[in-house]
Every structure is written in C-alpha cells, then in structure tokens.
Amino acid sequence: MTVIRVALAGSTGSIGTQSLDVISAEADRFELAAIGATGRQPEVLIEQARRHRPKIVAVSDTSAAAEIAAALPECEVRAGADALASLATEADVVVNGVVGFAGLSVTLATLDAGRRLALANKESLIAAGPVVQLARRTPGAELVPVDSEHGAIHQCLRATDNRSRVERLLLTASGGPFRGRSAADLESVTVAEALAHPTWSMGPKITIDSSTLMNKGLEVIEAHELFGTPAGDAGYGIGFDEIDVVVHPQSIVHSMVEFTDASTIAQLSSPDMRLPIGYALAWPDRIATPFGRIDWSTLGRLDFEPPDLETFVCLSLAYQAGRAGGTAPAWLNAANEVAVEAFLAGRIAWGDIARVISATLDQHDGAPASDADAVVAADLEARRIAALQLQLVVAATGANA
Ligand code: MG
C-alpha cells in the first residue's frame, strides 16, 4: 500500500484530534508528517507530537514556540503567521481543521502547492470562493471536503458519470438543539443550552453555528462552491435554487443527491466525524476501519421535515449572501464570527446573532472577491461594521434592561 503523508493544521481542535484517531487506526497507510495549531495550548501540541512523532510542528502564535522547541528536540519547530501554511509542501494531503477565517492561508497554500486539501475549514472556501476556485485549477490540486454533508454528496455524486444528470443537492441538517422552538422562546437561551448539540460532538464555534442553522447556511454556500460553480471539470452546474436543506434530526442520512430521473442517492452512517475525515484522507480508496457502524436492528426511524426559516433567520441570510456573491459571503462569515464570539462571551443574546449579521450585510459595499488581498480586506471591513452593530445591540439591550 502506498503510504499517504498527512499534515494536520489545527491538530489540537476537534477535527485535529479525530484525524489523529484515523491516522493511528491505519498506521500502515498514513504517515503523520507534520502537525500545527495556534500554539495557545502548547501542552496539548507537545503531547500530540510525543505520541504521534511528526517530523515538523508548527505554531502560528510565536509566544509558546521556545517552550515547544525545548520540549521536542527531535522535531523541527516552525513559528509565525506563515508556519501553518508552510506545512502544505510537506505532505500528500493537508487536513485544514483550523477554526474560522484564519484557515484561509492553509487552504490557498495547499491548493497552490498542487496537493490534496482535506477541507474541514469551510469558512475559507465560503469567504474566498472565487480565489479558492482559481487555486483549485493548479495541476495536482484536489479539494476533498471533510464536512460530513459534503463528504456525503461527494460519495453520492459517484453514482453518475454524466454531470448534467444531477438535478439537485439535498443537505441534511440535524436542526440543532433548538429544533421545534419559536424565535420568542429562543431569545434568551444560555450559552450552555446552545452548546448542547443533540447528535454531533464538535468545537464551540460550529456548535453555536448549528444552533442558529448558520452552519447549514454556510454549508449551502460551501456546496455551491464545491459542486456548483464550474471550476475546470469540478462543477455540476448547480445553482442556489438547486440546493435544498432538509431537517433530519437523527443525523444518519448525511446528505443526498437527486438525479434527473428523480432517483435519489443518500449516504448513511453514524454521526462520527472520523468517517468523513477517513474518506477524505483515503479517497479514492476507503479506509478499512469502521467508525460507528450502524446497527439497523435498533436504528428505528428516520424523520425529515422542512427547516423553520422564520425562527432560524441565519439560514436565509446565508442564501441571500451566497446569491449576492463577490465578497458578500466573506461579510456573512466575518459578521457571524464576530457575533458568535460575543454570544460565547455572554455579551449578546442568542437572538442578537442574526440581528448583528443582518445589519452588517445591509451595509455590504458590493466589492468583488478579486484576489486574496481583497478577501482579507473585506473580512476586516465586515468585522469593523459588525463590531459597530454589536455595540448598537448591546446599547439597546442595556437601555431596555
Ligand atoms: Mg457539516
């Protein structure tokens, strides 16, 4: 078996640690070449390096670099803003498990180096869609999604050789912890309630995004970038009107593709992120290790219902930004990161997240996403506007209290 060298950006996060599980489970297939993270948890990174023995350890934050280098004399330690992106040329596959817009440099460096990108960092693809599409055309570059829904669609699309036979994509959503509740009822839910996801174990940012359905909205844009927009031979000609969201609380069907003959292919598995991670690492092969095999004798029922767009406004905001295109998805993403951080810090209510994003998008300047610098500038401008909107929300809440 050809050994696949893997670099792991964001190794200390939820995707990172589950990727290490997959790599360890198939040590004859995968070789961990490098790991990297922000460096804010040096002790975790040191422990990972001692256990999994990568040759290179990278940290974007330089403050802990000396401590890490002293603890790992056998490793090459790289530190600084470009350290994570520098891992791109050290492996056959780079897993981008960085959280948020900060993952953009890893996405672009990996594709520009003509390597396979196992993408869990959906924010970089959403914010910088047009720029990432150009980078995807680099010879050898390949983008395999780690997001469970997009991994599912990637599998379902293998059911046809004719791209024009794809009718629509159906993204499933668990509905999050607040499915079935009204907007008024949800106005003042606590951070702990929003973090209690019913089916998936994930990091805090994406778990809050799941509670607002912004995660699904970002995934609609992600699906459009991955499978819709023509990028060389990568596109299926799918527009936003052909990407639907279906709420499926059991999280067993991870997404579906409907073809022109009205046949629908679905991908089913237990809600375990190690499966889409393993799929992206081993593709076009499959890993041999089963993670959470379905027990059909106890599975029971699979339910489906439409999303409640009145309550979960963020899903509509994402469609709106996706259709607007250009830097609008970058604005959506930046405003969401600002609002979620404020919610997690206890500064705003759950219902304010959508308000901050909506008010920010209302001020979108319509700039195109012409290159990486334009996207970074759009991200900064949107954060500035979102911070102002946040202050207005906080001030209004204070006045009402
Ligand atoms: Mg997902």
TrEMBL record:
**Record keywords:** Isoprene biosynthesis, Manganese, Metal-binding, NADP, Oxidoreductase
**What Gene Ontology biological process does one annotation of this record name?**
isopentenyl diphosphate biosynthetic process, methylerythritol 4-phosphate pathway involved in terpenoid biosynthetic process
Q: Where is the 1-deoxy-D-xylulose 5-phosphate reductoisomerase C-terminal domain?
A: 143-227
Q: Does the keyword NADP apply?
A: yes
Family named by the database record: Belongs to the DXR family.
User: Mind listing the GO molecular function terms for this protein?
Assistant: 1-deoxy-D-xylulose-5-phosphate reductoisomerase activity; manganese ion binding; NADPH binding
Q: Which HAMAP family match?
A: DXP_reductoisom
Please state the Enzyme Commission number of this protein: 1.1.1.267
Q: In which pathway does it act?
A: Isoprenoid biosynthesis; isopentenyl diphosphate biosynthesis via DXP pathway; isopentenyl diphosphate from 1-deoxy-D-xylulose 5-phosphate: step 1/6
SUPFAM superfamilies reported for this sequence? 1-deoxy-D-xylulose-5-phosphate reductoisomerase, C-terminal domain (SSF69055), Glyceraldehyde-3-phosphate dehydrogenase-like, C-terminal domain (SSF55347), NAD(P)-binding Rossmann-fold domains (SSF51735)
Class of enzymatic activity (EC top level)? oxidoreductase
Q: Which cofactors, if any, are listed as required?
A: Mg(2+); Mn(2+)
The source organism is: freshwater metagenome
Q: Which InterPro entries match?
A: DXP_reductoisomerase, DXP_reductoisomerase_C, DXP_reductoisomerase_N, DXPR_C, DXPR_C_sf, NAD(P)-bd_dom_sf
Q: Which residues form a coiled coil?
A: none
What's one Pfam family the UniProt record gives for this protein?
DXPR_C
Catalytic function, reaction form = 2-C-methyl-D-erythritol 4-phosphate + NADP(+) = 1-deoxy-D-xylulose 5-phosphate + NADPH + H(+)
Question: Domain DXP reductoisomerase C-terminal spans what residues?
Answer: 268-384
The identity of this protein, by name, is 1-deoxy-D-xylulose-5-phosphate reductoisomerase
Annotated 1-deoxy-D-xylulose 5-phosphate reductoisomerase N-terminal domain ranges read 7-129
